[in-house]
From TrEMBL:
Topology term for the membrane: Multi-pass membrane protein
Protein origin, superkingdom: Bacteria
Protein name listed in UniProt: Integral membrane protein
Keywords noted in UniProt: Cell membrane, Membrane, Transmembrane, Transmembrane helix
InterPro entries: Poly_Biosynth_Transport
UniProt entry tagged with the keyword Transmembrane helix: yes
Organism in which the protein naturally occurs: Mycobacterium botniense
Main location: membrane
PANTHER family recorded: O-ANTIGEN TRANSPORTER-RELATED (PTHR30250:SF11), PST FAMILY PREDICTED COLANIC ACID TRANSPORTER (PTHR30250)
Subcellular location field: Cell membrane
Regions crossing the membrane: 23-42, 48-71, 97-117, 129-151, 158-179, 185-204, 225-247, 259-285, 297-318, 338-360, 367-387, 393-413
Amino acid sequence: MPVTEVAGTTAAGPITRSSVARVGTATVLTAGCGYAVISLAARDLAPVAFSVFGVFWGAFGLVTGAANGLLQETTREVRSARYTDIVPDRRTHPLRVAGMVGLVAAAAIAGTAPLWSPLVFANARWLSVGLLSAGLAAFCLHTTLLGMLAGANHWTHYGALMVTDAVIRVVVAAAAYVSGWGLVGFLWATVAGAVGWLIMLIVSPTARAAAQLRTPGSTTTFLRGAAHSIIAAGASAVLVMGFPVLLKATSQQLGAQGGVVILAVTLTRAPLLVPLTAMQGNLIAHFVDERTHRLRALIGPALLIGVIGVVGVVAAGLVGPWLLRAAFGPDYRASSALLAWLTAAALAIALLTLTGAGAVAATLHRAYALGWVSATLASTLLLLLPLSLASRTVIALLCGPLVGIAVHLAALARRRR
């Protein structure tokens, strides 16, 4: 009996405009909450302290970005089961596997912290390590539940889980701002939303039903596919959310300029990468449905991303510097050229994210991982150039992703032949 019949919760039908609209609405709300947290932190903290918060924000984004590999593999497995009538000999419960992965990952972070935490966390080191470990363990369950909801076409609940995470974060950040909790409060706010999956399971029968879904194959098979996705998602997370950590690792001193560059990178990429990351479930499900025309299926989303990116580049150059000063204070100054180029770099990473989703849907796990790892290695090497912090940041974020895009497209073209 296929997994769809076992669970009884997988809705039929392709990805529709309605489902994209629902996730899009949730994405707007999520992005707004993310901006609110960053804005509150920037207003409450001086640039030097904000750079400390920005590094922790990036570190949590890095590890949870890697955990998003669970979302990708779960979505693909649940979705692909709709297109086969083969009776599986074994079935896997993804949510239980995610709990196991989360505990192992949290233990690995805590156990290795003495080796790397002095280089990453300048303040509140052990609190940061504890929050990072616990937050990651919870997020593994969160992202896997998202994948199960996406694979089963429960897009309203998928969006609700996204929004729950974001709202919890902004509530804790607002409390930290009002109470004068300072840096520590914003560290708690960063990870607070990771309990959203538990709230969703308590209040939603649909989420509880989706959580019972099982996928064909053994746990080993699921983990093998998830491992490739996690490696690639981890590499992508370095460029997307964990870039402040990479920037600090390749710089002797960040200081106030580092705080400005980190904020500029975060703000210029969010309009493209926040919704695109949130729609990973939609994209993978769409490419699975279009499994006979995957290269052609890339064209429409790529054109839409390109148009939005070009508009963003122009807007960043025209009003970006003023908006940065008006929103975050006179200490945050960046040139029009820097903001425009950083927005163009965000467009390159967005296209890499899109081609990566196509590779996952095609079960090209090795090519998917190789594309992101190649892009990250190229960006890391470019960050070592003897240039100013701003210049090497732009070059690394703009040129590195082009390597990964080439890897993904070459693999998809070979699969088509």
